[in-house]
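#onboarding

Welcome to the new folks! Below is a worked example of what a typical request in this channel looks like: someone posts a single protein sequence, and someone else replies with the predicted structure as tokens. Don't worry about understanding the tokens yet, we'll cover that in week two.

Example request:
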Amino acid sequence: MRLAIVSDIHGNLDAFEHVLTDIDRSNVDDIISLGDNIGYGPEPDQVIKMVQARHIPSIMGNHELTAIEPKYLNWFNPIARESLLKTFKLLSDQSLRYISKQKLHQVSHGCRFVHGFPPDSALIYMFQVSDHKKKRILEQIEERICFVGHTHMLEMMSYDGDEIQYAPLIEGFTPLNMDKKYILNIGSVGQPRDGDNRAKYVIWDSSQNKIDVKFIPYDIASVVEKIRAAGLPEEHARRLL
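Example response:
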């Protein structure tokens, strides 16, 4: 089974379309999104409509959570709050209804999928959790592999029942160990923060027990202009460059 996993599209339709084109020629069996389909980028409603049109199951991210629970706005810094308030105005009622039905986690294909940190947090970053707590969580959940997003950074954390180990997820193939549990942070489609501004996503090949990390180029300058034209914060345009 080959599963494509995307995360943190953040209203960047151009990046998402290029990722989907690559997915379509990669012979995958299914696609799942880890959330934050909206926020920061200029076309959140179009991204949601594309997710729906492609029948892609999507987990609720912290940006979606805030769209239906405005009390979480205080969780964000002032620039992000400004961006979110403008994003909400770009969303149709249909998209808001779709967001309201999203779940905080999903278990399928023998894996767990969550935006922030397992078992089901859309808000907690992996770096905020101690190794002691990570061990406890991994011992409690049944799934061997958990896919997360949220930080916009590629990272692999493994646990052999004794020690936690960290390693970067790099472009290309990474084999996994059947005797270990993993939390895999798959980076961001729409706003990477790892020093490489190409869109990122991964393919999990369960039959070969490996991850394929894909780096996808697209027309970033065009998206930067769309962000500015939409009146969104300049910082979110500069982050793409």
